[in-house]
Amino acid sequence: MSEPLKIVGLGGSLARVSSSRAALAIALRGAEEAGAETELLDLRELDLPMFNPEAEELSESTMRMVGRLESADGLLWSSPLYQGTVSGAFKNALDWLHLPSGSVYLTDKVIGLISAAGGAQGLQAINTMEFSVRSLRGWAVPFVVPVSSAARLFDDEGRLQDEAVERQLKMLGSEVVRVAEHFRVEESPDHEAECEKARSRVAAAA
Fold this sequence. Notes:
Elements: E1 6-11, H1 19-33, E2 37-42, H2 43-46, H3 60-71, E3 74-82, E4 85-86, H4 88-95, E5 98-99, E6 102-103, E7 110-116, H5 123-135, E8 139-140, E9 145-147, H6 150-153, H7 163-185, H8 191-201
Parallel strand pairs: 1-2, 1-3, 3-7, 7-8, 7-9
Antiparallel strand pairs: 3-4, 5-6
Helix pairs in contact: 1-7, 7-8
């Protein structure tokens, strides 16, 4: 019997109560229900320093984050939408993959994308994340979850009040597991074809 897949979530915000962090936790529960082991890398807890390409020493939290992302079978990313793009804290985390010793690529890792927006433009953050996925040589799951009007959907303690959005987030988590499993067992997987299957399978959950 093969070892369970490891799915790592990266995201949240620096706020104490974060809808993007709460959404990420729900998606990770979907991955757990699909049989994966999960870990949430909370940007607030990581407290990463600002990226410095000439840094002589790397913080423990930076090395832990890079190691977890590099060793994971699949990833879930979640960011709030700030000024039409991802948060500075999220972008700063990705920048640390450009280590002074050499870039860390997420080659062939399956990545699910989530955003949380106060209005209806959450896809702007998703689009930015997709550019980053491609530059890091990963594969974005076609089904994405831009959570619109997040302030209305989450209560003051970050609990999601919308069952349809909860289903979508869990579906995304399970899709990352399904596609990552396929990439692991197939010697030469047709990645584009598999991602197209994912698009068709989750259309009903959109």
